[in-house]
Amino acid sequence: MASSSCPYSTSIDRVTFRTRVLARHFDQFDLNPPPSLQSSVCLNYSPPELSEGFEFDINEMRKLIDGHNLEDRDWLFGLMKQSKLFCPRERGGRVFVSPDYNQSMEQQREMTMRRIEYLLDRGVFQGFLTWKGPEAELRKLAFFEVFGIFDHSLLTKLGVHFILWGGAIQFFGTKHHHEKWLRDTEDYVVKGCFAMTELGHGSNVRGIETVATYDSSTGEFVINTPCESAQKYWIGGAANHATHAIVFSQLNMNNSSQGVHAFVVQIRDGNGNICQNVRIADCGHKIGLNGVDNGRIWFDNVRVPRENLLNSVADVSLDGQYLSEIKDPDQRFAAFLAPLTSGRVNMSSIAIYISKISLAIAIRYSLTRRAFSITPKGPEVLLLDYPSHQRRLLPLLAKTYAMSFAALYLKTIYVKRTPDSNKTIHIVSSALKATLTWHNMRTLQECREACGGQGLKTENLIGHLKGEYDVQSTFEGDNNVLMQQVSKALLAEYVAAKKKNRAFRGLGLEHMNKSCPIIPSELTSSTLRSTQLQIDVFCLREQDLLGRFASEVSEHQVRGQNKEYALNMSYQLAEDLGKAFSERTIFQTFIEAETVLPSGSLKNILGLLRSMYALISLEEDASFLRYGYLSPDNAASVRKEVAKLCSELRPHALALVTSFGIPDAFLSPIAYNWIEANSWSSAEH
Q1: Reduced to 3 states, what is the DSSP secondary structure of residue 93?
Q2: Residue 162 Rama label (left phi>0; alpha psi -120 to 50; beta)
Q3: By the 8 A CB rule, do 656 and 395 touch?
Q4: Strand 244-253 relative to strand 211-215, pairing
Q5: Positive or negative torsion for Cα 59, 62, 68, 73
Q6: Residues 6+ apart with CB under 8 A from 274
Q7: Contact present, 196 and 233 (Cβ < 8 Å)
Q8: What is the pLDDT of residue 28?
Q9: Share of the chain above pLDDT 90, in %
């Protein structure tokens, strides 16, 4: 073997060399650090209530943003806390209730049904379908908000049964359907589901492929799944529990399609056995909502009685004649989408309550969790005392307040609906469902990050809720499609007003009858906070974008392109316009809520929140710069004012999230004594 040229060729030499190197390395460090680097006294949890004052009446604020049925909500919260079915657990000296998401999909589904049975036995669902009037509907909506605060699966399972299945019977059915189905639905004798979506068609309901053919020789409809893309998909309740389905099908009469109609079809018998000629498969595990048994359904020439056609919009006579007072197929189709409106109303308000949960947890945590010091040997600073942390959470808090008023407005016009208001409700519910559910997902993400590693723990809810509520972006209408529908509806209003030379009426578009507002060239702090400036800038954006959108669509049509192509090619303006309409609508509901209050602390804090909502909307939407509504200098002024508002809202943060009225048990351990909740004594050994 050749000798090595390395001077430390023997193993002893190599050890000696490495020892010397390590010794020189350690000599660089003082192994007796100065006192400032020694371990500090252990952190202690101090409830934020001890240091954070309430400068307004939180009970009055809750009345304002909840709006209705506060006692009913609190009664239902109490029912849930009383039962072990809602998984009470002690953490950090408090009891919390939330589903056990560590359970298997099958176990979560079973628990959802057991909770429903518990609530049924205690009369929670009484009147959900049989009581009439706005008060009864508001009570039901309040209960659904509480269901959602506890668990999205419970909410969804009940929503499919009562709002979609039950709503379809109410809206599409007539007296004999009501008498046959509504009471049994309310008492859970019948378990309903809503079979609209197919593998090949979601938002495009007109294109569904399931076919119903009338057989005049027997007086029956024959329901058939003609191809794999026609299988009903994502049908909540279908995989395990539903006994009946509202099945949307193309009605075939004498080899001619009359469009989409709704039928009652039994899919299981009273013992839970799947009915003949019906096939059902499970959709499987999901990123959330695993307490809901989503299923797929195929129909192999299933026969149902003629009376099972829900016939408030159209009917078929015994001898096979198609009958409808609505001659226009488009209007007839629109009438079939009514239950989706109620679902969007419900979903909009639920999204805001989930935002409230995440903000209450993240803000309470940031009022007790410290990080770094800003002076030598100084104490660590509360997270919410950092301007950057305020900037992350407080604008979202202001938006959540603004959207609470919008959701309350939507519920109010819905429960007081008339035939004349249906179009308004459809447009507003589409806009708010998209805007509020998008806001919820953004809020959950920001709150998750603001809680650091603690936001990842399932027991702290925020991270898990992202998976649970992500589906709302496409549930009962893809948000992007809904916003395009809003812009198309606004365009129709614009064209009709110009064509008939009449004033704009409804949808808050009366500002279109005035000339465009003029924004001052220089915006001071007081100007930016003035209600009039804020109204003007929202109206200016909407007015200008609607004109631009109409002009661009018209230009495409002048070049010989059809209207649908023109609308598709103008999608960017359509998106901008949909956002402008939504945010202006939200802002108007805020103004209306604030205006009726007497002078005082409550009105003052709402003024700060309103200004924050307005200015953060200006800052975040590039349209204000893109189309020149704000100069770059004014945009910079807006940004500075947002920072000022953050510092002014900071002392009220605890009071504002406490005003949400969500019981401690429905939040999470990091909202309270997170040190004790994570102590060795609290761990499961």
Answers
A1: coil
A2: alpha
A3: no
A4: parallel
A5: negative
A6: 267, 268, 280
A7: no
A8: 42
A9: 86
Identify which of 647, 617, 47 has the alpha carbon closest to the alpha carbon of residue 389. Answer: 647
> What are the structure tokens assigned to 650, written together?
């900071």
DSSP three-state, residue 94: strand
Amino acid at 684: E
The DSSP-derived string for 583-632 is HHHHHHHHHHHHHTSPSSHHHHHHHHHHHHHHHHHHHH-THHHHTTSS-H
What whole-number distance in Å separates Cα of residue 314 and Cα of residue 447?
49
Q: What share of the chain has pLDDT > 70, as a percent?
A: 94
Which amino acid does the sequence have at 549? F
In this prediction, residue 22 has a pLDDT band, given cuts at 50, 70 and 90, of: very low
**pTM (2 d.p.):** 0.92
One-letter amino acid identity for 237? G
Cβ atoms of 168 and 310 closer than 8 Å: yes
- Positive/negative CA dihedral, 551, 554, 558, 564: positive
What are the beta bridge partners of residue 220?
Answer: 215, 305
Are the C-beta atoms of 194 and 168 separated by less than 8 Å?
yes
- Separation of alpha carbons 429 and 138, rounded Å: 16
Closest C-alpha among 129, 132, 133, 103 to residue 115: 103
Cα-based distances in Å from 247 to 209, 235, 250, 302, 323: 12, 10, 10, 11, 20
Distance CA 332, CA 24 (A): 87
Count CB neighbours of 36 within 10 A. Answer: 8
Instruction: List the structure tokens of 276.
Output: 């003949």
Average confidence score pLDDT of the chain: 92
Residue 298: count other Cβ atoms within 10 Å of its Cβ: 17
**Mean pLDDT on 57-71:** 98
How confident is the model over 305-355, as pLDDT tens digits? Answer: 999 999 999 999 999 999 998 888 888 888 777 667 899 999 999 999 999
Alpha-carbon distances of 139 from 342, 404, 473, rounded to whole Å: 14, 17, 26
**Cross-strand bridge partners of residue 300:** none
Q: State the Cα–Cα distance between residues 82 and 91, nearest whole angstrom.
A: 17
Q: Which of 102, 116, 117, 148 is nearest to 471 (CA)?
A: 148
pLDDT digits (tens, 9 = 90+) for 562-578: 999 999 999 999 999 99
Contact 160, 340 (CB under 8 A): no
Backbone angles phi, psi at 417, to 5 degrees: -65, 150
Q: Which residues pair with 294 in a beta bridge?
A: 236
Dist CA 630 CA 640 (whole Å): 14
Place of tokens 């003609």: 226
Question: What is the C-alpha to C-alpha distance for residues 337 and 426, in angstroms, rounded to an integer?
Answer: 9
Pairing mode, if any, of strands 370-371 and 94-97? unpaired
Three-state DSSP at 78 gives: helix
CA dist list (Å): 399 to 355, 436, 633 = 10, 10, 24
- For residues 363 and 393, is the Cβ–Cβ distance under 8 A? yes
Q: Are strands 232-236 and 294-299 parallel, antiparallel or unpaired?
A: antiparallel
State the maximum Cα–Cα separation within the chain, in Å, rounded to a whole number. 108
66, 95 contact by CB (below 8 A) = no
Q: Over the stretch 522-561, which tens digit does the pLDDT of each residue have?
A: 999 999 999 999 999 999 999 999 999 999 999 999 999 9
Tell me the three state secondary structure of residue 154. Answer: helix
The arithmetic mean of pLDDT across residues 222-233, rounded, is: 98
Q: What are the phi and psi torsion angles at 418 (to 5°)?
A: -130, 165
Separation CA 26–CA 125 (nearest Å): 73
